[in-house]
Write the C-alpha cells for this entry.
Amino acid sequence: MIVQKFGLADVSFERSPGQDADVFTANVIDQRHGGPVTIGYGRYAPNQSIDVKLAVDDVMLVLEGKLWVDTKAGTLTAGPGEIIYMPKGETVTIRSQAQEAVTAYVTYPHWQVAEGVSTAS
C-alpha cells in the first residue's frame, strides 16, 4: 500500500448491507487493498435508525450532524469532531434525528469479511 488521501468527493455510497434504513457506507480502504483495517465514510439520512450487533471493533468519527448510539449501558451522543468507540460483540442502535449525519469510520478487522458481505464488483 502507498500513502493516500481521501475525501467525500472521492466516494460512492451504497446502502448499508442488511438494513432498510437510509444509511449508507463507502469504504475507501478495505480487504481488497491489503490493509489491516477498513476505513470509510457513513451517511445517515434524517430520522434513521439501525440496530446492529458488532462483528468488529468500530471507531466512528462524526463529521457532520449528530448521532445517538444506544447501548445496554445508556445513550451516547456525538457531534462534529467527536468519536464513538464500539467494541466487537456490543449490540447498538445508531440513530440520526432531524438532520443528516456524516461519519468517518475505521473497523478492525474488516467489517465486510466479519459480516460475510460479498465484495465482488
Summary: The beta strands are 14-15, 23-29, 38-44, 49-53, 57-64, 67-71, 74-78, 83-86, 91-95, 101-108. The longest strand covers residues 57-64. Residues 22 and 82 are 22 Å apart (CA to CA). The mean pLDDT is 90.
